[in-house]
Amino acid sequence: MTDLPLFNWRPTAKVIPFPGGRRTGKARQVAKLYLSKTAKQRRSYWYRIADDYVAAQTNVGISEFAARASLDEFREAVEREIALIEARGMLRK
Asked: Cross-referenced InterPro entries, in alphabetical order (predicted)?
């Protein structure tokens, strides 16, 4: 009686990533470190951040396409934080 397919059925799980644009704490941290580096170091740093970001998301089951879309949102958040940091720095001078 317990061999019915209903008892063996398991719903498929779907992993939903946290929106990259909403990761403001991480974006602020990345922006501060990014601004403290030279131009050559910045490029290398961003590539490492981007690779790590996509790898972390694909490792938990998010498609690479969705991970890259989330990375684009995260990049925009980092750019916003850089603009805020620079604007605040200009006001302090």
From this structure: DUF6074 (IPR045720)
